[in-house]
Design brief:
Radius of gyration: 17 Å
Number of helices: 6
Helix content: over 70%
Mean pLDDT: 84
Low-confidence stretches: 136-146
Distance between the termini: 20 Å
Shape: elongated
Order of helices and strands: HHHHHH
Structural class: mainly alpha
Strand content: under 5%
Largest sheet: none
Length: 146
């Protein structure tokens, strides 16, 4: 029997960390659960892209907090354009990963997800579902650890 440990985390904490870190916590959320997702289903989620996204978001966080002190107006406008492009790219990676994670969980335990809630609340809704799922049932091979 294949046993996978998904970390239970308070959803309010996930929302708070996502907002306080200006989105940096979102790729970290996936990276912290990499082992559980990979044990369940290999190659469903592209963790290389998520690692790159984490590094890019870390740079953008530094720029957004301190960039005004180092750049001229022209430099700020160029970095703002780059920021917009990278953020859009990051949203694509995030939504791809969210829907792949949904597939992994649906295939594993047969739990249905609401498309619209997943679209609007991404990792927050995934964490909510992970917290609520009963992975200790006989017919499911997943086990959640606290």
């Amino acid at each position: 029997m294949n046993v996978v440990s998904f970390k239970k985390t308070n959803v309010f904490l996930v929302v708070l960390l996502s907002n306080l870190t200006l989105g940096l916590y979102i790729p970290y959320w996936f990276i912290a659960r990499k082992k559980a997702f990979n044990e369940w289903n290999q190659n469903q989620i592209n963790f290389t892209a998520l690692n790159a996204l984490f590094i890019v978001y870390l740079f953008l966080l530094f720029y957004n907090l301190l960039g005004f002190a180092f750049l001229t107006d022209y430099g700020k406008s160029i970095f703002d354009s780059i920021d917009l492009i990278l953020t859009s790219f990051g949203l694509g990676i995030m939504y791809f990963s969210v829907f792949r994670a949904k597939e992994v969980i649906e295939d594993g335990v047969g739990e249905e997800f609401n498309f619209w809630l997943l679209l609007f609340f991404h990792i927050w809704y995934l964490q909510y579902k992970i917290n609520r799922l009963d992975f200790h049932r006989e017919q499911t091979p997943l086990e959640v650890s606290r």
